[in-house]
């Protein structure tokens, strides 16, 4: 019922060209859809709603947060990360709860992207307690310990359910396995698949076959640089070369440049000027010119009258 009422109000605001009202009602509609897990409907509404320059920083932050959640569910992690970090950065200092929610989702998205958030993210003032479950989760992913990951997920399952991030954390299992496999490939030049299964703590009926499948997929995806000796049941890691001879430093440098340029563009767009200020300035200048011409004309007429007398 509330959804239909909000849609009717949004239609009225659109017909009246009330952009601030449209912005507010769009956020309310997105919030309502996301509350009931209607992500497809939320995306359809968001994509078809008219776009215009944000009139309220608070409403724009809410929109970025909802957009980040939609992008996360749609597996578009890069766009989701950008939206969530931007929402947290633009949010007012007093909006602590909102910034905590943005940070929680941003941490999950960064982990899904294979990134490890810095410790300072979890040590922000007023956020330490709320972000503690996500700090321990990040530590488990960083180490690549599947057992530790499971214990953290069970320990804070109630918190993750309240935050509605439990389904996203289930997706992290693959990242944990891949991180552990990457650590193994760096530590060992050659290791049996049975030992790989033991170190990854794979709890399956046929752990060796699962380990072989996981290693094969990681090699194909480029996560590790290794080969599989199927006859002997080994994973043979290739010698690690100089990372500066690859394109990875260039890619990291380009991503930082893009981030800085994006922040600069956001700052420029955030500059606010009074509406029609340039027109008002032109009108004021014309008014001064007219007054000056009238004064000169009055002075000229007065001088002519004096000459006649």
TrEMBL record:
Pfam families for this protein: PCI, Rpn3_C, TPR_PSMD3_N
Gene Ontology cellular component annotations, sorted alphabetically: proteasome regulatory particle, lid subcomplex
Claim: Oxidoreductase is one of the keywords in the record: no
InterPro entries: CSN3, PCI_dom, PSMD3_C, TPR_PSMD3_N, WH_DNA-bd_sf
Region (Disordered): 274-309
Keywords, ordered alphabetically: Proteasome
Keyword Glycosyltransferase recorded: no
Residue span, PCI domain: 61-242
Segments forming a coiled coil: none
Gene Ontology terms, MF aspect: enzyme regulator activity
Residues annotated as transmembrane: none
UniProt GO BP: regulation of protein catabolic process; ubiquitin-dependent protein catabolic process
Biased composition (Basic and acidic residues): 277-302
Family of the protein in this entry: Belongs to the proteasome subunit S3 family.
This protein's name: PCI domain-containing protein
